[in-house]
Amino acid sequence: MITREEILKKLSFNSITGELYKKGSMKVAGRVRPSGARTIDIGSRAYEASRIVWFLTTGSWPVGKLRHKDGDKLNNRFDNLVELTSKWGKVKNPTLEQLLEYLYENIHYDENSGKMFWKAYSLKHNKGEELSSVDNCGYPTVRIMGKHYRQHRLVFLMENGRWPESCIDHKNGDTKDNRRCNLREVTKKQNSKNIKRRSDNTSGIMGVSWAKYLNKWETYINVDGEKIPLGNFEDFFEACCARKSAEVRYNFYKNHGREV
Question: How many domains does the structure of the chain reveal?
């Protein structure tokens, strides 16, 4: 590896700006690659300017890759550089213990907002950046060691040290609200008792629909896969009361049937 003396024979270093100049010249050394980073030829080898700056400042070459905090690959001030070192790069199919260790090391969970943030820089995100990816079903997700996880399940894992046996229900129905107070472990049957009203519902109340052939309001409730009739009513209010009473009787959650 090239020495400090060999570098300084060829280049001048401005430690304030992070710029490297050709010796005896005010011209910035090197060339800008298509990636946006600057490289400098010394002898028969090309070096990234950022790595030279790191070496000249610390006295040792970076072990891992370097990240520019502000995203500008030409801004090689030392305080804009961070070395990325991770023991997780080659881990695939992590064990539960490894996943928990990774979460505690790399992710900050804010209990007040229910949101997650990165604790450190990486090639793809900034320190303090929110984990903001959302899947097609509206659940916040994160990719860890090649696998996608829904964040509400990770919150449960970090809190309990285990995966939920079945489902995690968002009490208020907001799939993006991952505050601990809004999450509860439930069975699939329990989870089915706290769902949104279908978009094609015309009465405004789940399990209440107008039956033209009867000229009445028909009411029913689905419990554990069984459709249970609750009666037919001329009065809409009475039909709604019958449905809501059945929800209480069969232990449906209070937010069941909320607006889409």
Answer: 3
